[in-house]
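Course assignment 3, question 2. Fill in each field.
Student: A.L.
Task: Predict the tertiary structure for the chain below.
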Amino acid sequence: MQPLIEKMLTDFESGKLSRRQLASALTALVVTGAQATPPAPDFRAVSLNHVTLRVADVQRSTSFYREVFGMPLKTESPTLKLLSLNRNCFFGVEGITGGKSPAVDHFSLGIQDFKLNEAVAKLKNRGFQAVVSKESLKFEDADGITVQLNAPDYPGYLP
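Answer field:
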């Protein structure tokens, strides 16, 4: 765009464009630029599928979330409990492993028309390394936060 503006200024200075023509042309450039369609996103997130916490005591934390928030148990293993929020959204409570501290382990976004291989390729093009697991993938965002991507109706799996 800069070469175009420079040409318009040169044409104005040499008398090829009037002040009115220059003002109109510059206004048209600004309006056109402001209305330009942003590039399409790589993914269309349509839901927050789940959040998984890392906790010191799985049973204690599970009891807390069930009793305080009324979340029914969806499924469980010795190290992971999935509590149901609604049909396509759950809350994971996972035991700490490997010397980690209690924290939000990851969150998962439901992606419209999710295709695992295409998602891996799109993330790779942006410089992110995805770890694939069954019907989903995980990667770390620019701040090191673990993000999981899957279809909106992803049911969750136990280890």
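Instructor remarks: The radius of gyration is 25 Å. The chain has two domains: 2-34, 45-150.
Grade: pending
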